[in-house]
Batch of 2 targets.
Target 1
Amino acid sequence: MEVSVTVNGTVRSADVEPRTLLAHFLRDDLGLTGTNIGCDTSSCGACTVLVDGRSAKSCTLLAVQADGAEVTTIEGLAGDDGLHPMQQAFHECHALQCGYCTPGMVMAAVSLVDEYDGLDAAGVREGLEGNLCRCTGYQNIVKAVLAASE
Amino acid sequence: MTDTLDTRTLDDSSPFAGGIVGKARLRKEDPALLTGESKFIDDLVLPGALWIACVRSPHAHARIGSIDSSAALAIDGVVAVHTGPDLADAWAAPLPCAWPVTDDMKNPAHHPVAIDKANYAGDIVAIVVASSRYTAADGVEGVVVDYEPLEAVVDLDDAASDRVVIHDDCGTNVSYDWALIPDPDAVDAAFADAVHHVTETYVHQRLIPAPMEPRGVAAVPSPHNGDMILYSSTQIPHVLKVMAALTLGMPEQKLRVIAPSVGGGFGCKLNVYAEEIVCMALANRHGVPVRWTETRTEAAVSTIQGRAQRQTIELAADADGKLTAVRATLLADMGAYLQLVAPGVPLLGAFLYHGLYDVPAYAFTCRSVFTNLTPTDAYRGAGRPEATYAIERAMDSLAIAVGVGPDEIRSLNFIPTEKFPYDSPAGLIFDSGNYQPTLDRAKELVDWDGRRAEQAERRSAGSTTQLGLGISSYVEMCGLAPSRTLAALNYGAGGWESATVRILPTCKVQVVTGSTPQGQGHETSWSMIVADQLGVDPDDVEVLHSDTAISPLGMDTYGSRSLSVGGTAVWMATEKVIDKARTIAAHMMEANTEDLEFSGGVFSVKGSPDKEVPLAGVAFGAFTAHDLPDGMEPNLEAQVTWDPGNFVFPFGTHIAVVEVDEETGAVELVDYAAVDDCGNQINPMIVEGQLHGGIVQGVAQALWEEAVYDEDGQLRAANLADYLVPSAAECIDMKMDHTVTPSTSNPMGVKGIGEAGTIASTPAVMNAVVDALRPHGITDIVMPASPMRVRRAIEAAGGGAS
């Protein structure tokens, strides 16, 4: 099936099998490998991207479901003037180690901060419940998201 | 935290004077990881590659009958289906086990693809080769295997009984018996004379390591010249190169192994796996790249699991509670086969069941058995979390028996600071330690006395939300390892590490390390060490690693060895380069070498402040080689291979505070303090980060994680929806502090910190849970302390029947 998705501001079209996951479409058809895949039960959140501005696990969507949508991946976050404030906060707070969960975690955090005003630590922890990290124990991730939300 | 016990990160004795080491520095690894630029194994673009998918036995124990591949082969895009018999000559040897811990250890042949019998649910019985990952997965559905199910052995005692023998050629399920009893008579005498004799039995459940990146492999052949590149999401590209060449039967010099960005390891990527050998063999057979990426559900059975042992620990003590002997007896689960270092994992704890306590008599024995479950092997801490758990849980029991507090029993028994270096009863020499301050500070951080008062108030008020406090003081041995010690333990390799430091003509620096990172920040830390020594900017230092063509010598990353062994090699190579540069600088300034000082990247002549030459001038001079001292080789480069003379022994005290809801059985972590000592700290930010993650992994063993199997050997927690890797919502902010007691085992005075958090936290949490429930007479909860288990324990104790 032909799908057409605006990815990081550019319209991208491809002919995909109907069963193709959005995550695989981004990675294998568009070469945007920053979106990582960490599970097969939509549990880990490593593949989180923004679909029409809201975070979504790209393994829970078929590529065809994103037809006509605007998708932002981790590759679309940093601008000409450097890292996005959330990426910068993750850097400054040492909120990543192996970095595999990081693209999804950053995208989920961007969406969380966008959706809620006045986030506190408990709110960040609750809001990121769908994104797993095995390295950091989350302490510095929470710190980074709070720093970026200010 | 500004209010710290020890504001230092470096002891005065540290060799670092450059102002870079010892201060937090942001990681140079981050920008690529934060933007998606980093390439993990599944990101690699390999034109023409075929994908494999594995047909795995659904039975824990079954004879393999006929295999019908016709439906798979009928699928457009499926190239081949290979069975075990097809591939029997595709490799030279079964999968390797590098640690024959005893001469008569039973080690059944572990074929990459099973030939006639599957020995665990997940054992590979056939391989589908296809043009895409989707098609390969479709192909698996089209392979029909005729199995004859056999009775599965899943229980450790059942395994040890040999009621059902899994491997006919072994004749028994017992792989080995191993003992460390330096003085049996002394142990017997101590127990005979003991006023207090504590005996406890604990179970370490099976854990799934679950790095966020599943494993992956790609083998890229050059059919006509015989070269092969093996990409693997591995912790051990160097070890893998040797073992894969031997296992496949190819010349080692033709094999290059590359670990791309690796998304966490925690021990489970310290192995030689079937899929690595299968991809290499099929790349040879099909003449094109062959690749595989593990799915998460597959990983639950196809990647090693950790812990899995039952331990009995006995303490002998005098009337005051002073320990006189410790005796530990283990029954450990190897799973269906012996993976790379599996037999040695329980034994890495063999030396530590007396913890950080001064104990005169010691005995340790371990029996390891086969079961029809996924093989076990190293998982963060590997043997040391188990040992620490046993002694730290039992110390609380001893405190109760003696009638003193858990803090007091520890203080009474800590190895006194003046006894270092300490000759341990298990035969080790502990390098350095000063334990009491870590306990004092941890108590302060959690307001120990205040919390005790609150606990008493809640109890007297009849609250059903009980408070519990748990202490865990630990010492661990890491920095694996002195090669001669490994020889004494029958390990199949050395414990050295290699480094090359190369100052380029423009005074930029390349560091080649045999240590292989999976998120620990080696590039940043190694840069800081070298920059501090050379007086250059850390950003001018590039650290090269994880590719055997670039870094041909290495022993890789596990056992918290990278800094104390690999980092030391880097430090020594840099010193060696400075020595050469000093000779050239002296020649340039027509001065004596011994009259030269090197500071801030400049060589100067003592007493002649106007005579100086910067390192950059020396580097360019070494490159042009126009005027070098007679006989000196051009360029500034040095290689060092460092074999440590001893382990390093980090230590600390962690305290957990939990609330236990007696009505629901729910346990909530409400406070946590960690006071650790890893000697001199290169980058305190990274030290703290390692601890954060390690602590949560250990808390997860106590409260959430378990690879639950049923009686047929079926894994009931095979994905991240059922296996409870904690999220941010279950975790809390931990209070961190440290002390600095430098190691004497290496010139940097550093110890390891990668595993310490995991080692310390599990017993802290479980001691807290039991402390909360002690009024019910409860002395143990089997891990993880789930609401169901806590409620059942309360009900069994006759309480809370509501």
Target 2
Amino acid sequence: MAINNRGPVAFNRSTNPVAATGQVEALARQLADQIIREREQARARQRLGRIFTSFDPTDDILPNNVEIVTRGLFAGNTGSLTSMFLNSNLTATQQTYFQDIYSTGDPADDTNANPELSVAYGHYGGSGSVDTTGNLNNDTPTRAIYKQYAQLLLSPLDKKFTFNGTDSDSIYVLNFNRARYREKLDPGNFELTFAQLSGSMPDSAIYNAAHTGSNVRVSGLGNYYSVIDDSSLTSGGSISEGGLVYNLVSGSIDTGTNIHSAGAPTYFGLLYPQHGIAVLNADQLNKTYANGGLNFDSVSGSLVQGANATKLFKSLSGSQALTPTSITGGIQSRSSEQVKSTYYFVRVKNAEYNYSNNPSFVTGTLGQLFFNTMINDPQVYITTVGLYNTRKELLATAKLSQPLLKNYTREALIKIKLDF
Amino acid sequence: MGYLNNSTITVDAILTKKGRELLARGRDEFKITQFALADDEVDYDLYNPDHPLGNAYYGAAIENMPIVEALADETQMLKYKLVTLPKGTARIPVVSVGQTTIELQSNESVTITPQTVNFQGGNRRFGYTAILSDSDVAEIVAVRGVRDQAASVPQFIGDSEAAQSITVSGVQFEITAKELLTADRSITILFIGNETGGRASVTLTVKKVEIATTGLTAG
């Protein structure tokens, strides 16, 4: 850059070396100040007639900020699911493997019904279902379901789910829709409320093999249990083949996190937040209410189509009617997602961006300002910020919530957050 | 004791279609380096310097206006950009092409050199972006390019039109009419200043080829 019109700098010949050094320093400082001043002036001149301003990569761009975003898990960003409907569009064969749970209605009747999760029953040996191919190869749905989830969530040599140190051959599974839980379920904000079912009642005339999904009902005794993950305990949570895993224990999050008998809680299952899956111990659910269970009485015959998954649906969907108003019932959960953001700091100095190409800002065809008062005191309003690359391609846009006045007496600092 | 005015405004940005495309391409092309400001939905006719309540209310109608959400279509955003100009400016830089209509015969050419009036040296470095809306009717090339990379985004036109349009950057452009056999066609050519913003449009009419028919008779 050329430096013009510099004034002469006086330099007095001196025999004193200290004085000479001081003179050189003063001269150097004067020159440096002049260079800086001229650069600033040149920059100011360069800004004139411009619609774009470059970001300073060091000061104006803050990349890779990580933020945890949590939302209600269910449709409409709601944190609880109390009204549930089965999907009767599933084929009979599909229903032997799983049931879909929808909010707002059965999709067969309501085209706007929202899918929320699927429930399934699995048995290590295939009990509670029938091999539709003639029982030649034990190709039973419940066996397939058990092995599928064991394969997904357990280590390669571990074939059975273990709850509080005891293996179980029989599981219930809640599998939440991926679009709902996004990255993972939010540990510490998960609660299932189960209503006691009609199985194994002293006066029940329905024996186990007949206590299928279509025959089961809520007990009518008004009993329920709520179950939460144990992430609030310091000992809660571990890393497994299936990623993070928490125990599901008796407790509630309705009035703050509260694990019942925290020292020796009742263990109901396991929560795999990263998979969006909860695996419940059917052995625990099968117990009577007096023994800490919910009378599921899962159909255990080897040649019976038990439709046990429907029991899980009936217990969850029937719980809200039993709980007092202070307790939500059904399913409560949130999704959790790690969002990476970059912040762009748009700094608009007082002398910048005080005029507009907006056609209503001018009158006539020669660009004359619409208001004469704006010749020396222009007033414009920022509503939109555009972020561009060097080719001046518009890559991202941001809108302000209301127009921001800009004139020669005002500067603006707008922080733009761009999520990836 | 009142509250301090928190002067930092935080707003969320959304990616445009172009932004998503470059991000998906994954060749380190998604690199934001500069910004521009705009006031697209502001009608300065709402500004009232005669407001009976005084100058604090001159812009009240604009300031109280709710703003519509951002669009992902980059062709419909930031149409009217704010510009930095010297204090005391009485006229906004205006892009001018000297004419509003051009009529060409088939295969005829015309050279257009846009000018920026009201601002000396305006758009001299980055030139202009010219958008010819229908390549079936004419072609456009930059006779004199620009010294640096310039706008390549076809602004103000949608996808279907963009497929038919030609966008070039430069300081001087040559437009050549194509041979039309069926009918005269009129299209728009838009010139946008790459530095000052502002734009000018020209209507180009290309006349169809007149074929002389001499007394042919059947049989």
